[in-house]
Amino acid sequence: MAKVLMKGNEALGEAAIRAGCRFFFGYPITPQSELPHYLAKRLPEIGGVFLQAESEVAAINMVYGAAGAGARVMTSSSSPGVSLKMEGISYIAGAELPCVIVNMQRGGPGLGSIQPGQSDYFQAVKGGGHGDYRLLVLAPASIQEMVDLMGLAFALADKYRNPVMILGDGTLGQMMEPVEFPEMIDPDKLPSKPWAARGAKGREPNIINSLYLNPLELEEHNLKLQAKYAQMAEEETRSESYYTDDAEIVLVGYGSSARVCKAAVDQARQQGIKAGLFRPITLFPFPKAEIQAACRQAKSVLTVEMSMGQLVEDVRYNLEFKVPVHFYGRAGGMVPTTRAVVSKITELVQEGGRSA
Amino acid sequence: MITVFERPKSLTPAKTHYCPGCTHGIIHRLVAEVIDELGVREETIGIAPVGCSVLAYNYFNVDMYEAAHGRAPAVATGIKRVHPDKVVFTYQGDGDLAAIGTAEIIHAAARGEKITTIFVNNAIYGMTGGQMAPTTLIGQTATTAPNGRDPEVQGYPIRMSEILATMPGAAYIARVSVHNPQEVAKAKKAVKTAFQVQLERKGFAMVEVLSSCPTNWGLTPLKALEWLKDNMIPYYPLGVQKAPEEVKA
Ligand SMILES: Cc1ncc(C[n+]2csc(CCOP(=O)(O)OP(=O)(O)O)c2C)c(N)n1
Ligand code: SF4
Ligand SMILES: [Mg+2]
């Protein structure tokens, strides 16, 4: 198939349709609005449903309804709206329903800004809502990767009966790149979901639920969820390592920040500095073995984020505090520049990997 | 032998957890009988609320959901949009529907979602220990209004049926009671109409059922029914608030 030039948010919409998603429920918020705009036009054309809900709370509960009824369903929002969805996300994780949630992050806290941010990392990977649950979190760094990860997101949601989040940011949503789409998946040809509530014809009723009044049963349910998360850690970690084989300094970043880091690595290499980049693509499960391999002979690690330091905690933890991990971040919608990252690299190399 | 009384197919054999004299049980039965009579048990998906009827998913013998507090109409919307040919109903208390879930019910009605809502108004938060509800009457005591609801402090009780009847998307809105056998019979008729309106795709349908909570009202079951008749009905008048022309006739 030929490549087409497309805006990130719109490409995500088309990718969801290609993945067999026919239902979208959302509430407007910048900087993700092109995604609902696209789907509002496109979904009815192919017999799907686009519905603008009265709030993000309602939208995520519509997703709960549609997912429990057996559909591939998606919602999208940006930071303040995702906070409102947390109630529903916890119920969806508790009831083990598959769905995809997009967060095109903007600067926070509070109303923050409408400029890109990466300060919802903790909310995305540590739970966000109440209870011991995890989302599978995918972090694309290009429009093509957004498209590819959307297909994966729906497949993993169904495989694990778990909500999957695509954690992007305002930059990725707004920028344009050429993309190639996969073939269309026919939702009617997807494997059936015998647990779904669609009318108890010739069988015992199905119940979509996250309530367990018996403490032992709820503990068992939690252990089952944990086993699922452990299996994700076994089977689903994804990452990219760029010039890490001989790297003395390894940069770590995801999404837009990783793009800046890549450019910084190229420049540092031109100056003769052995720099590399480790880019986690799954933020949960975190690619632990992969980051350890990438930082094998690194004297120092530099995490770059559009936040005041969230991913950096997971980097330290997953490297088991064996390598000094430094941090460079911008916030409020400010994007780190290649020049600033390169000068941070130079500074660290000159210091010879002092302890963080 | 003739069977004169048997469990509707749409109820499971599970023993309910409701307090003695609580009318939630009667309302469950009415809904189940209507589902049986319409022959849609295998096509029906119900949504239990958060409140005393949180375990309704164990009692209705149909596919069921348990929704977050107040969100049942949004959940129902998601289901109905995926399966427009199925019958979808929500069962909600007054705290669930008229406080935390006000936005969800109003917008489901405004969109004319083709769902049926059974709204159980007992003027109190039953499950959490008798706190004031948005429907608690002026002067009625509650654990969070120990001196009685004072409009200067807590404002006025909400009449949801009247509000929803103003929505063009609402096809059928009625308020009924279950405090005596005659009213129970009328209530069943209204519940049946509310399901038929959905089957005919006319729009949103809701039946508000005035219900007793002897436990949190601090009354015996019989006194509670009397209290309902004497105090709730004057503020929440019974009757059809809105109906399609042919139903009115
Ligand atoms: C988000 C959230 N807030 C509060 C509660 C606690 N809670 C459980 S039931 C309930 C009130 C239910 O009252 P009502 O809807 O009138 O139902 P009833 O028990 O009277 O039938 C509350 C506040 C909850 N479960 N979830
Ligand atoms: S607390 Fe009230 S509403 Fe709840 S079961 Fe008991 S009587 Fe019924
Ligand atoms: Mg109540």
From TrEMBL, chain A:
Transmembrane segments: none annotated. It is an enzyme of class 1 (oxidoreductase). Keywords: Oxidoreductase, Pyruvate. InterPro entries: 2-oxoacid_oxidoreductase, PFOR_II, Pyrv_Fd/Flavodoxin_OxRdtase_N, THDP-binding, Transketo_C/PFOR_II. The keyword Oxidoreductase applies. Residues 247-339 form the Pyruvate:ferredoxin oxidoreductase core domain. The keyword Cell membrane does not apply. This is Ketoisovalerate oxidoreductase subunit VorB. It comes from the Bacteria. GO terms for molecular function: oxidoreductase activity. Pfam families: PFOR_II (PF17147), POR_N (PF01855). Its EC number is 1.-.-.-. It comes from Acididesulfobacillus acetoxydans. Signal peptide: none annotated. Residues 14-233 form the Pyruvate flavodoxin/ferredoxin oxidoreductase pyrimidine binding domain.
From TrEMBL, chain B:
SUPFAM superfamilies: Thiamin diphosphate-binding fold (THDP-binding). Coiled coil: none annotated. Keywords: Oxidoreductase. Residues 54-209 form the Thiamine pyrophosphate enzyme TPP-binding domain. One of its GO terms (molecular function) is thiamine pyrophosphate binding. GO terms for biological process: cellular respiration. It holds the Pfam family TPP_enzyme_C. PANTHER family: 2-OXOGLUTARATE OXIDOREDUCTASE SUBUNIT KORB-RELATED, SUBUNIT OF PYRUVATE:FLAVODOXIN OXIDOREDUCTASE. This is Ketoisovalerate oxidoreductase subunit VorA. It comes from Acididesulfobacillus acetoxydans.
